[in-house]
Amino acid sequence: MINKTGINIDLKDRVALVTGSSSGLGMEIAKYLAKSGATVAIHYHSQKQPADQVANEINSNGGKAKVFGGDVSNRAEVESIFKSIDVELGPLDILVNNAGIDGKRQLCGEDNPDDWENVIAVDLMGPYYCAREAVKRMKKAGHGVIINITSVHEYIPWSGYTAYSSAKAGLSMFTKTLAQEVSELGIRVVSVAPGAIKTPINKDVWGNPTTSKDLMTKISMPRMGETSDIAEAVAFMASDMASYITGTTLVVDGGMLLYPAFKHGG
Ligand code: BGC
User: Fold this and answer.
1) What are phi and psi of 217, to 5 degrees?
2) CA–CA separation, 100 vs 120, rounded Å?
């Protein structure tokens, strides 16, 4: 893809898997990687129809995409997704661990531990299962990129979301530790940390005037993020333009981490 400044993000001949690409961030990331030339494995858990739609859109615009279903928190299902990709698309070059859930807002002690476990299973175990399948293949090829979609909540505590924040902070450390493990094998591992991006995951917040006003006080720039803000960052991180970047997080949050409440007072 030639971007606005004429710099080329070229993912031609690369095969990419984007988990959770039937909606929100994952859907946009899949489209951007395809526009940049990659063959994309669209992954869904429960929403096959929108996944098929994304793949059709990519294929009818001259790109290449196929749909794969399964639960990232189930090791056997992850193994079978990767085996199907081997057969149908060839060796994987890029893994984007995007599938994730916020979980219900619940205070610790008043919560249901099953919900906590489920968030950890999807947001932390899922990326781990996918990364270990990817690493096995990338080791053989001598190259590859793994991008973990974390969140500003790898840094910012978030009351009511202990599972989510813990999973994202854990995923960030997984990025660093795995990057250290595989750096001499030609494999890069990075995180992209979105702030408040307008997607279905947080529609109850941006769709309501009171909570949306509160949210804006938490972002330095005067707008929420768009899915394209994240997709562009991921396409860059996946490309050879980022070939010396590993084990770190690219934060894409419009300055949420700048403590905007400190613009005044203190
Ligand atoms: C969450 C969103 C939230 C944002 C900022 C993200 O990681 O998924 O629901 O709006 O962080 O708090």
Assistant:
1) -70, -10
2) 9
Which residue's alpha carbon is nearest to atom 9 within ligand 1? 202
Q: What is the number of the ligand 1 atom nearest to the C-alpha of 205? A: 10
Ligand 1 centroid – CA 184 distance (Å): 34
Q: Give the distance (Å) from ligand 1 centre to CA of residue 164.
A: 10
What residues flank ligand 1, with Cβ below 6 Å? 102, 151-153, 195-196, 201-202, 205
Contact yes or no for 173/189 (Cβ under 8 A): no
Q: Which amino acid is at 172?
A: S
- Whether 32 is a known active-site residue: answer no
Taking residues 104-124, what's their average pLDDT?
98
What is the fold, at CATH topology level, of the domain defined by 15-254?
Rossmann fold (3.40.50)
- Active-site choice (129, 155, 164, 259): 164
Per-residue confidence (pLDDT) for residue 8, from 0 to 100:
77
Q: What is the mean pLDDT of the chain?
A: 97
Q: How confident is the model at residue 28 (pLDDT cuts 50, 70, 90)?
A: very high
pTM for the full predicted model: 0.97
With b for 16 or more beta-carbon neighbours within 10 A and e for fewer, the 23-33 pattern comes to bbbbbbbbbbb
User: Residue 9: its pLDDT value, please?
Assistant: 93
Task: List, in order, residues 6 or more apart from 229 with CB less than 8 Å away.
Answer: 194, 197, 252, 254
Please state the domain extents for the chain.
15-254
Residue nearest to atom 4 of ligand 1 (CA): 196
Rg (alpha carbons) of the chain, rounded to whole number: 18
